[in-house]
Amino acid sequence: MNLGLGVPAGVPLYLAWWLLTKYMPMDCKRPEDLTKPELTNCNYTTLDHASGIMFLLAVTGIFTLAFVAMIDVIIPLQRGRRLAAWLGAATLIPVPFAIFLALA
């Protein structure tokens, strides 16, 4: 079940990966910073897309966390199953994303 949840969880994981690898290393964080000659690591396209990526990360992250809470906490508690086993299996959620990233 958690591996299946990992496929749609790939969207917020990819968005977080993009922010960490493309946006965070940049020297500029605002369009006004592009005019400064001492900044060498500035990309207007990355800067332009950052706000949309952050918004999508927040929206998809909330839905993914809700699904994880439902599948790994609420359903097992209702059925009287051990919660520790389900939460331990939640570590499988990033596996599909890691495979897709390794193949890319």
Helix-residue proportion: over 70%
Give the number of helices.
Answer: 4
Order of helices and strands: HHHH
Largest beta-sheet characterization: none
* Total E-strand runs: 0
User: So what's the overall shape?
Assistant: elongated
- Please give the alpha-carbon distance between the first and last residues: 24 Å
**Mean pLDDT, nearest integer?**
88
Transmembrane segments: 53-71, 83-103
Keywords: Membrane, Transmembrane, Transmembrane helix
Protein name: DUF2834 domain-containing protein
State the main characteristics.
104 residues, mainly alpha, 4 helices, elongated, DUF2834 domain-containing protein, transmembrane helix
Give me the secondary-structure topology.
Layout: H1 2-23, H2 44-79, H3 83-89, H4 95-103
Helix pairs in contact: 1-2, 2-3
Structure overview:
The protein has 104 residues and is mainly α. It is built from 4 helices and no strands. It has helices at residues 2-23, 44-79, 83-89, 95-103. α1 packs antiparallel against α2 and α2 runs antiparallel to α3. The longest helix has 36 residues, at 44-79. The mean pLDDT is 88.
